[in-house]
Automatic annotation (TrEMBL):
Endpoints of the signal sequence: 1-28
UniProt keyword annotation of Zinc present: no
GO MF terms, alphabetically ordered: hydrolase activity
Record protein name field: Alpha/beta hydrolase
Domain of life: Bacteria
UniProt keyword annotation of Hydrolase present: yes
One GO cellular component term: membrane
């Protein structure tokens, strides 16, 4: 399948296969430095981000929308799945803020929500750079708890490998993990996703189609490289895996998805595996209470 982006709206919109490649949700927490001149804040115009301040962050020639719900010194950052804007977390953010009293941050990746479109193929290095730039400009530089859904798992793994000092913990929600993207699995994904990519190219102006096309470009090479990424042993992590997986119709792929999660967790003693029973890939929408509980548990363990 060509690069896919799993998420509750992207899957029905494009194809379940797409959900596989873009698993992501991110939470960052606590201990940030205060910037001397933070980006200007305005009330978020959208009801989906009610109660949050909108900060337009500039990085590498484009602007990104970060939404900040102020709390105590700790911070939780939520990173959405592939093809999803920050609105994926609209029902979870206020509950998480009330339960932890932390500052909660969500954001729109390039080309989604209020963030600028960046032409060309989707590159995880650029996505990591955008997230780091936004957090730095908001004063978040350490003690981050990262919670990522779907494609966000790729951003989380790269960020953790290269900047372990930023993270105090993570929760990966049915996320893309390096162990899944083997030399045997990648061609299966490319083949499965090709019809959806071809259909998307007929209407490339649609945001979801644009994201799918961008993810598909260079997918095989990018995910061969992703397979070599290593999560640092110093960062504790909880992995939530969906029971049905993004591959409910393919027993082979579903087993490999679950095996990848188990292999990831078994690599270090400070990792925990949780199965979201009865769920499809869209765990945040179908089991928000479970996601909230695991984030709260990780947050409490680090404070």
């Amino acid at each position: 399948m060509s690069p896919t982006t799993p998420s509750r709206r992207s899957v029905p919109r494009a194809l379940p296969v797409l959900a596989l490649l873009a698993v992501c949700a991110v939470t960052a927490c606590s201990g940030q430095d205060s910037p001397s001149a933070p980006p200007a804040a305005t009330p978020a115009a959208s009801a989906e981000n009610a109660g949050a301040e909108l900060h337009m962050i500039e990085n590498d020639g484009h602007r990104l929308a970060f939404y900040v719900m102020r709390g105590d010194s700790s911070t939780i950052v939520l990173d959405s799945g592939g093809g999803e804007s920050s609105s994926q977390w609209k029902d979870i953010v206020p509950r998480l803020h009330a339960a932890t009293r932390a500052t909660v941050i969500t954001y729109d990746r390039a080309g989604l929500g209020k963030s600028d479109v960046v032409p060309g193929p989707w590159k995880v290095e650029s996505a990591v750079g955008d997230l780091k730039a936004g957090l730095k400009q908001l004063g978040v530089t350490k003690d981050v708890i990262l919670v990522s859904h779907s494609q966000g798992g790729e951003i989380a793994n790269h960020l953790a490998q290269d900047n372990p000092e930023m993270l105090s913990g993570a929760v990966l929600v049915d996320a893309n993990l390096p162990q899944f993207f083997t030399d045997e699995q990648i061609p299966r994904l490319v083949a499965a996703g090709r019809p959806a990519v071809d259909a998307a190219k007929k209407d490339p102006a649609k945001p979801e189609n644009r994201q799918l096309i961008a993810t598909a470009e260079g997918f095989a090479a990018a995910h061969r490289a992703f397979h070599e990424v290593t999560w640092p042993g110093s960062v504790p992590v909880t992995v939530i895996v969906s029971e049905k997986t993004p591959f409910d119709g393919s027993p082979v792929d579903a087993r490999r998805w679950r095996d990848a999660a188990a292999s990831f967790v078994q690599a270090a003693p400070n990792r925990k595996l949780v199965t979201a029973e009865g769920t499809s890939h869209d765990v945040p929408a179908e089991r928000p209470d479970l996601v909230l509980q695991e984030i709260e548990d990780m947050f409490a363990a680090q404070h």
